[in-house]
Amino acid sequence: MDDAPEIEPLSAPDKTSSNIIRRIADETTSLPGDTKMSDLGRKLRLHHIGIVAVSEAQIEEFKRILELEEESRETIEKYHVTNVFLKCAGDTKLHFMIPHKGILKNFNQGRGGYHHVAFCAKDITEAQEELERKGIRFIAPEKQKGIGRFQFNFALPNIAGLNVELIDDPDVEWTD
Question: Is residue 101 part of a domain?
């Protein structure tokens, strides 16, 4: 399945990214304590940090030193990557990707490292549509099958210089 869309590597922010950030900031509403958060911000939660690993040994060393447990592991042939999720305190996870070939294999000149930040959306379709109205494109027109029970979509190429992934995770509980 080599027709899978490639996830573009992290690139430097451009004027468009700065304009998008400015527009998002302009559309925020005030909350108690002068904290500003847009309606979209209230519907997103940090889900995981994505890291490209250069080897299985790198992940094992990370697990050993920080005493983290492996929560899940799955290979997605479509993207030529083995995904390993490590559980941290709270709800946030670390997502290590071990690329077998493709663009991720040469990520950061083959050294791996930070790749993306993933936000769980209360309603991924609504969140994607709201970001698209702000000029953000995605790698696919709608969410795709991810690891385990969750679905995902990546902003294309990035938001303000960072690779961003939206997640629909049925295991995340939302309170209103």
Answer: yes
Residues β-bridged to residue 45: 120
* Euclidean distance between CA atoms 167 and 48, whole angstroms: 9
38-69 per-position pLDDT tens digit: 688 889 999 999 999 999 999 999 999 999 99
* DSSP output for 86-128: EE-SSS-EEEEEEESSSGGGGGGGGT-EEEEEEEEESSHHHHH
The number of distinct structural domains making up the chain is 1
Residue 99 sits in a domain whose CATH number is 3.10.180.10
Q: pLDDT tens, 133-168?
A: 999 999 999 999 888 888 999 998 788 889 999 999
Strand blocks (E) in the chain: 29-30, 36-37, 44-52, 69-76, 81-87, 93-99, 113-121, 137-138, 144-145, 151-156, 164-168
Kindly state whether residue 20 falls inside one of the protein's structural domains: no
The whole domain housing 154 covers: 43-168
pTM, two decimal places: 0.75
> Per-residue pLDDT tens for 89-98?
888 999 999 9
- Angle 141-112-116 (CA atoms, 0-180°, nearest 5)? 35
